[in-house]
Write a structure and sequence with these properties.
Number of helices: 12
Radius of gyration: 21 Å
Helix content: over 70%
Mean pLDDT: 80
């Protein structure tokens, strides 16, 4: 009978094994997101990883989140919103802890989609709500800065930027926000300088800024800069 007695080391090892298996099970659906970390600067490979998630995860909520991220990277914001909305409905119908955490990421994607579609007020409202829930969420502040700047609210933009600067700020997000701030003030040459500095950074650090949006800003600010000169 002594063989069946649980010693403290055996008990601890058993608990660790159970917790490890639970962690793996929880994180397994996100494996394709982790794969994108190896392709931070190559959007086409990122999109392939996210498409694989959508297919392999069998239209679960995490699959819809990844599909929406893929559509945002492709500039298909209407389709991204469709997948986000579908996932939000599913999360609210089954309010597990996992789904409650996932809602945070879904609403962030929705804010990004609204921002690039020019729906700045709606994007700002969502980003502000996300920041209230998590004041360490740099990208939410980034959206707030850029939306205020695009709406012509310099005071609001600089206030959001002052909150952002209190954090250990990623260079890509810093230059992107500064580009929008400078452009909002009519300093287009400065905006272009900041824009050129973010081309080699990870797309997740620049609010999913893809090439078409980059080119759009480059063309817009170059034209305004020439008129100002």
């Amino acid at each position: 009978m002594q063989y069946f007695q649980l010693t403290p080391p055996a008990t601890i090892a058993g608990i660790v094994a159970v917790l490890l298996m639970a962690l793996i099970k929880l994180q397994w659906p996100f494996r394709f997101q982790y794969m994108t970390l190896f392709h931070k600067k190559t959007p086409e490979r990122i999109k392939k990883c996210l498409e694989a998630s959508f297919l392999k995860n069998n239209k679960r909520t995490v699959a819809l989140l990844d599909k929406s991220s893929q559509q945002i990277l492709a500039g298909e914001y209407d389709d991204a919103e469709k997948y986000i909305t579908q996932a939000i409905v599913m999360c609210k119908q089954t309010p597990t802890l996992f789904h409650r955490a996932l809602l945070h990421h879904l609403f962030y994607n929705l804010a990004v989609a609204y921002y690039y579609r020019g729906r700045y007020k709606e994007a700002l409202q969502i980003a502000a709500h996300l920041y209230q829930r998590d004041n360490k969420f740099q990208n939410a502040l980034g959206i707030m800065v850029c939306c205020h700047a695009r709406m012509g609210d310099s005071q609001g933009a600089f206030y959001a930027f002052s909150l952002l600067k209190r954090r250990r700020l990623r260079p890509a997000l810093l230059h992107y926000c500064l580009a929008e701030l400078e452009a909002a003030q009519g300093k287009y040459s400065n905006a272009l300088n900041h824009l050129e500095k973010i081309g080699n950074y990870a797309y997740s650090h620049t609010l999913f800024l893809h090439q078409a949006q980059f080119d759009r800003r480059l063309k817009e600010w170059t034209k305004e800069s020439s008129h100002a000169g």
